Task: structure prediction
Amino acid sequence: MAVKYLYLDDDSQQKVGQIARSLTIAGKIEVEYRPVSLFTSQVEQLLAPEKAFDGLLLDLRLDQEPRENGQKAEYTATTLAQFLRTKVYDQEAGIKDFPIVLCSQQSKIKMYEADLSSHDLFDYKFPKEDVEERAEEISGKMVALVEGYRSIADAQGDWSAILAYDMAQLDLRMFSRFTTRTTPIATHEYARHILKELLSPTSELIREPILAARLGLTTDEGSWPRLRDEVFGAARYQGAFGQSWARWWQPEVNRIFESMCGTPLPSLDAAERVAAIVEHTGISGLVAAEPIALNHSTWYWTICEAYQVPLDPAEGFRLAGSEPTIWQEYDYISLKALLEQLHTTELHRQLHPDEVLRFESIRENYA
Result:
């Protein structure tokens, strides 16, 4: 049965109806546009016992365009989302938690990103300008959010069930804020922790380009899909949101490699890792990745975020962002990409403050 999202926007259906139609996929997801109402009326509609939707899609500014009666809504998406998130804890209201997604113009998304206080309210965000080219990807993530919320609710706080992985094999500090809390915890808090703390940064769960890098390869290799799926498929994350946030468990990658090749993965350079894989799998056409220009090491363990290719962290430069927790890792950029200023022009990020002096001293050699 298709999941259903309500799409609230202060623009007319004539202007934004195409977004709802583009995101709708028969049998998988239905996105229904509705014009905004005044706050009290809107909340009553959303919290009605007979409400028939699984998720909410919101434009950021719901208070700019007048409604048919000439009045403007007196609230924004952040105001509405905050109210709904808080209302979930009202046991008398009996509200079932659901994902809230932000869809707005790129300029407004940037405004939202600058407001750190609102970052915990939305499960996912995307610019309206991206819908035409990324509709299938975005719809897939919206479906995954609904299904993930359901699996989290069904697990009733069991992290092993939520992640489909034995939490005893992980650093238990990942879950300390949940295991030490005595009050009820809403589904959206579990969802936020998974999406923001486990799936988004590099942690025990890694993205496909980093998986390839740690195996000494790039994802452009012709035999890469076979190696990824047939040999390391057992390491694929199967927990909440996993069908649209593709990740792999690093501990399982290590286990599979060492069991197959007889030596720990980090103890080999790229050429040695690839040679061992070819020898023990018989998969041909795998060639170790070459270092990025201006780099030399093939002891890859991360990627250059600008080029999405393997990089030895010792030769990379950390990017600024939220400081990683004990179980997370920094994002890196290569010297070549840094000299080309791709961190600002492509990634829209800054160099980590602790890397600035190091880069300045090196940059003089390439003036």
